[in-house]
Amino acid sequence: xxxxxxxxxxxxxxxxxxxxxxxxxxxxxxxxxxxxxxxxxxxxxxxxxxxxxxxxxxxxxxxxxxxxxxxxxxxxxxxxxxxxxxxxxxxxxxxxxxxxxxxxxxxxxxxxxxxxxxxxxxxxxxxxxxxxxxxxxxxxxxxxxxxxxxxxxxxxxxxxxxxxxxxxxxxxxxxxxxxxx
Length: 181
Description:
3 helices; alpha+beta; 10 strands; single chain; ten-stranded mixed β-sheet; 181 residues
């Protein structure tokens, strides 16, 4: 997808919702399995990502990736080593390769968490569609071989190195537009 079109979609949504113009903005494309970082209105970097194995959905218990405008409302794990596993948003003290094989077979939350909050009431905010209440994040994974294809249970997953880099670049309150088509 053309980066200029992506950015225009983001700007339109931000203006409609009256969100303050930020320095850093993110756009995630579910069809392309890519996440773009814009800095001061210019494309800065893009990352391969994985969204949900299921169809996009904003409904609770759907395990689908929600779409629409979100913001980064929390940053967790900035002082932990790469590969650290998080459970309940707390570091476990072990990296994913230190877990038994049966645990490693699961899709673990690793390295960093950028927690998302939906900004569109009735779409991804409030009631049974609330992204924050669904615990939707941008995070690392112990299954980096699946990055670039749908593989998550609703979150946006990056490689551990990429999520650490993104974590350091993105301030809280940065907008994240997730496109479903």
